[in-house]
């Protein structure tokens, strides 16, 4: 099944730790003015299967789920959310191409980024995100560039022998909408305004430029050596 392949693909957080990316401080410059709170990010990931990685900052890491069909603003729509390993906070603003042969190889876009508020209460008191995750019931209010309003992540199982999975559901509020998909309306990066193709093309240009510079440098060194050798002769 698709969700099992995605889970396997995203199964090693250590593979991301050494990858060049920004920091948590860099990420915050892209947020709405005055927005406070822990980060959330949705990364559009064109890997073996196109999907969206939904991430919430919890206790110093990014708790992560792969959403095969992406988030919806329609409360009637339940999106499969496959839990994946925690990611480093610095990965929140990574946008680029993960090379073939590495975990999660493919194009990554920061589709949305912002902050969130934990709104899950029990007996009038806020339940910690750590406890919410343990209980399998997370309720957050997103303050992103594209996604706004309440969202719930609910853990469930199909049978006792199967791995638990989650559902991402838009909560009913003034921001909910049953109209055209927000994914279709706003397909570009929240950071750079680029499409997946443009991100891949830009990375290719940079790599080509570096390769050309390396070739020119090598030729220059060889030429210098020939000149020095000729002078000695």
What does this protein look like?
The chain is an alpha+beta fold. The protein has two domains: 2-194, no CATH class; 196-233. 28% of the residues lie in helices and 33% in strands. It is built from six helices and eleven strands. It has helices at 2-9, 14-17, 24-28, 129-135, 182-185, 196-232; strands spanning 39-46, 50-58, 61-67, 78-88, 96-98, 106-118, 121-122, 125-126, 137-144, 148-156, 165-170. It has an eight-stranded antiparallel beta barrel. Strands 7-8 form a two-stranded antiparallel ribbon. Strand 7 (121-122) and strand 8 (125-126) form a beta hairpin. The longest helix has 37 residues, at 196-232. It starts with a helix and ends with a helix.
The number of domains: 2
How large, in whole angstroms, is the Cα Rg? 22 Å
**What distance separates the N and C termini?**
70 Å
Major sheet attributes: 8 strands, antiparallel, barrel
Q: How many β-strands, per DSSP?
A: 11
Q: Name the overall outline.
A: globular
User: What class do helices, strands and sheet pairing give?
Assistant: alpha+beta
Please tally the helical runs, counting DSSP H or I stretches of 4 or more residues: 6
